[in-house]
Design goal:
Layout: E1 19-24, H1 32-43, E2 47-50, H2 57-67, E3 71-76, H3 81-94, E4 101-106, H4 110-118, E5 124-125, H5 131-147
């Protein structure tokens, strides 16, 4: 749903924009994809906070809490996704951020994607995913969470880059 005067993404019954934290965790220095996604989300009307490179899981979760975000996107191209996503998810639970969407992207094998989903990580996106799919997913999932629904949002996932 969009605000009638601005077209910005807002949830039903509120004028609050979606706030998203985009983070690079660990020693991964490949930040181009994270910056591109951050710009796409911003251009879609979301408020985006980008943490920069080499953040610890603790720093990222603390920033998510301080910034009152509704979505946290991790960009992980280092192969450390099976360590970093679970660590961030655990810290989010400890800090009471269970309702914050944890999503992200990188080169993540399907079997790892499935294991991360079981831990409560949202949809993960691979290289080549059209930006509008990331935007649509975050909008749908945040709206669902704001409405209190427990079923995950199911946007179009036909691109080769998106994980099912």
């Amino acid at each position: 749903m969009s605000h009638p005067s601005t077209g910005s993404p807002v949830a039903p019954a509120t004028d609050r924009k979606i706030r998203v934290l985009v983070a690079k965790v660990g020693l991964d220095g490949h930040d181009r994809g994270a910056k591109v996604i951050a710009c796409m989300l911003r251009d879609a009307g979301m408020e985006v906070i980008y943490t920069g490179l080499h953040q610890s899981p603790e720093q990222v979760v603390e920033a998510a809490m301080q910034e009152d975000v509704e979505a946290l996107g991790l960009s992980i191209l280092s192969g450390a996704h099976m360590t970093l996503f679970p660590k961030v998810r655990k810290l989010m639970k400890e800090k009471g951020l269970e309702n914050v969407l944890l999503t992200g992207g990188g080169i993540i094998p399907p079997e790892d994607d499935a294991a991360l989903r079981k831990l409560g990580v949202g949809k993960l996106f691979g290289p080549g995913t059209p930006g509008h799919e990331v935007v649509d997913y975050i909008r749908a999932e945040v709206a669902r969470r704001r409405a209190g629904s427990k079923a995950p949002a199911k946007p179009n996932t036909k691109s080769k880059g998106a994980r099912k």
